[in-house]
Amino acid sequence: MGKDDATWLSICHGAFALFSAYITLLALETLGSIAGWSERYDSWYPLLSRLVALACGFAAVYYLRVSTERREFHLATIGEIRKVTWPSMPDTKKMTIIVAVVVAIFAVILSVFDLLWAKILQLILP
Question: Which end of the chain has less neighbouring CB within 10 Å, N or C?
Fold first, then answer.
Protein backbone atom coordinates (compact mmCIF):
# COMPACT_ATOMS: atom_id res chain seq x y z
CA MET A 1 0.00 0.00 0.00
CA GLY A 2 2.16 2.75 -1.26
CA LYS A 3 1.55 6.34 -2.08
CA ASP A 4 0.26 5.27 -5.46
CA ASP A 5 -2.70 3.43 -3.90
CA ALA A 6 -3.53 6.41 -1.69
CA THR A 7 -3.44 8.65 -4.77
CA TRP A 8 -5.83 6.36 -6.62
CA LEU A 9 -8.12 6.30 -3.60
CA SER A 10 -8.15 10.11 -3.48
CA ILE A 11 -8.95 10.25 -7.21
CA CYS A 12 -11.81 7.77 -6.67
CA HIS A 13 -13.11 9.85 -3.77
CA GLY A 14 -13.05 12.97 -5.94
CA ALA A 15 -14.92 11.18 -8.73
CA PHE A 16 -17.43 9.89 -6.18
CA ALA A 17 -17.94 13.44 -4.87
CA LEU A 18 -18.67 14.73 -8.37
CA PHE A 19 -20.97 11.81 -9.15
CA SER A 20 -22.87 12.22 -5.87
CA ALA A 21 -23.21 15.96 -6.44
CA TYR A 22 -24.48 15.40 -9.98
CA ILE A 23 -27.06 12.81 -8.93
CA THR A 24 -28.22 15.06 -6.09
CA LEU A 25 -28.50 18.01 -8.49
CA LEU A 26 -30.62 15.94 -10.88
CA ALA A 27 -32.83 14.83 -8.01
CA LEU A 28 -33.24 18.41 -6.76
CA GLU A 29 -34.04 19.70 -10.26
CA THR A 30 -36.64 16.96 -10.71
CA LEU A 31 -38.12 17.61 -7.29
CA GLY A 32 -38.13 21.36 -7.97
CA SER A 33 -39.96 20.96 -11.26
CA ILE A 34 -42.49 18.51 -9.82
CA ALA A 35 -43.19 20.63 -6.75
CA GLY A 36 -43.13 23.86 -8.78
CA TRP A 37 -40.28 25.37 -6.77
CA SER A 38 -38.07 26.02 -9.79
CA GLU A 39 -40.74 28.26 -11.36
CA ARG A 40 -41.92 29.85 -8.13
CA TYR A 41 -38.42 30.58 -6.80
CA ASP A 42 -36.57 30.92 -10.10
CA SER A 43 -34.25 33.61 -8.75
CA TRP A 44 -32.57 31.59 -6.01
CA TYR A 45 -33.64 27.93 -6.42
CA PRO A 46 -30.99 27.02 -9.05
CA LEU A 47 -28.20 28.43 -6.89
CA LEU A 48 -29.53 26.74 -3.75
CA SER A 49 -29.92 23.39 -5.49
CA ARG A 50 -26.33 23.54 -6.77
CA LEU A 51 -25.02 24.45 -3.32
CA VAL A 52 -26.99 21.61 -1.69
CA ALA A 53 -25.75 19.18 -4.36
CA LEU A 54 -22.12 20.19 -3.74
CA ALA A 55 -22.64 19.90 0.01
CA CYS A 56 -24.08 16.40 -0.43
CA GLY A 57 -21.14 15.37 -2.63
CA PHE A 58 -18.60 16.61 -0.09
CA ALA A 59 -20.57 15.06 2.77
CA ALA A 60 -20.49 11.69 1.02
CA VAL A 61 -16.72 11.88 0.61
CA TYR A 62 -16.30 13.07 4.18
CA TYR A 63 -18.27 10.02 5.31
CA LEU A 64 -15.89 7.81 3.31
CA ARG A 65 -12.72 9.48 4.55
CA VAL A 66 -13.57 10.03 8.23
CA SER A 67 -13.03 6.41 9.29
CA THR A 68 -9.47 5.08 9.21
CA GLU A 69 -10.82 1.50 9.15
CA ARG A 70 -12.82 2.24 6.00
CA ARG A 71 -9.79 3.92 4.39
CA GLU A 72 -7.56 0.96 5.22
CA PHE A 73 -10.19 -1.42 3.85
CA HIS A 74 -10.34 0.50 0.56
CA LEU A 75 -6.54 0.59 0.33
CA ALA A 76 -6.39 -3.16 1.01
CA THR A 77 -9.00 -3.70 -1.71
CA ILE A 78 -6.89 -1.75 -4.20
CA GLY A 79 -3.87 -3.83 -3.19
CA GLU A 80 -5.81 -7.08 -3.74
CA ILE A 81 -7.06 -5.92 -7.14
CA ARG A 82 -3.44 -5.32 -8.15
CA LYS A 83 -2.72 -9.02 -7.46
CA VAL A 84 -5.40 -10.27 -9.87
CA THR A 85 -4.10 -11.91 -13.01
CA TRP A 86 -6.47 -11.15 -15.83
CA PRO A 87 -6.92 -13.60 -18.72
CA SER A 88 -5.40 -12.74 -22.07
CA MET A 89 -7.56 -11.83 -25.05
CA PRO A 90 -7.23 -15.28 -26.74
CA ASP A 91 -8.19 -16.99 -23.46
CA THR A 92 -11.17 -14.67 -23.10
CA LYS A 93 -12.30 -15.44 -26.66
CA LYS A 94 -11.99 -19.20 -26.06
CA MET A 95 -13.95 -19.05 -22.81
CA THR A 96 -16.63 -16.89 -24.43
CA ILE A 97 -17.06 -19.37 -27.26
CA ILE A 98 -17.28 -22.26 -24.77
CA VAL A 99 -19.96 -20.45 -22.78
CA ALA A 100 -21.93 -19.63 -25.94
CA VAL A 101 -21.81 -23.25 -27.11
CA VAL A 102 -22.88 -24.61 -23.71
CA VAL A 103 -25.76 -22.11 -23.54
CA ALA A 104 -26.86 -23.09 -27.07
CA ILE A 105 -26.77 -26.81 -26.16
CA PHE A 106 -28.85 -26.23 -23.04
CA ALA A 107 -31.28 -24.05 -25.00
CA VAL A 108 -31.84 -26.90 -27.48
CA ILE A 109 -32.27 -29.43 -24.65
CA LEU A 110 -34.77 -27.21 -22.83
CA SER A 111 -36.74 -26.49 -25.99
CA VAL A 112 -36.97 -30.23 -26.78
CA PHE A 113 -38.19 -30.94 -23.24
CA ASP A 114 -40.66 -28.08 -23.54
CA LEU A 115 -42.06 -29.41 -26.82
CA LEU A 116 -42.29 -32.96 -25.43
CA TRP A 117 -44.01 -31.72 -22.27
CA ALA A 118 -46.47 -29.68 -24.35
CA LYS A 119 -47.32 -32.71 -26.53
CA ILE A 120 -47.74 -34.95 -23.45
CA LEU A 121 -50.04 -32.42 -21.83
CA GLN A 122 -52.08 -32.09 -25.04
CA LEU A 123 -52.58 -35.87 -25.03
CA ILE A 124 -53.54 -35.96 -21.36
CA LEU A 125 -55.67 -32.82 -21.32
CA PRO A 126 -57.83 -32.67 -24.44
Answer: C
Instruction: Tell me what pLDDT residue 1 has.
Output: 47
Dihedral (Cα; 24, 25, 27, 33), 10-degree rounding:
160
**52 and 24 Cβ atoms separated by less than 8 Å:** yes
23 closest CA partner among 58, 56, 61: 56
16-48 residues labelled b (16+ CB within 10 A) or e (exposed): ebeebbeebbeebbeebeeeebbeeeeeebeee
Tell me the pTM: 0.61
Cα–Cα dist 73/59, whole Å: 20
Rounded CA-CA distance 98/41 in Å is 60
Per the document, the length of the chain is 126
Write the pLDDT tens digit of every residue in 72-109: 998 898 889 889 998 999 999 999 999 999 999 999 99
Q: Which of 57, 53, 55 is nearest to 28 (CA)?
A: 53
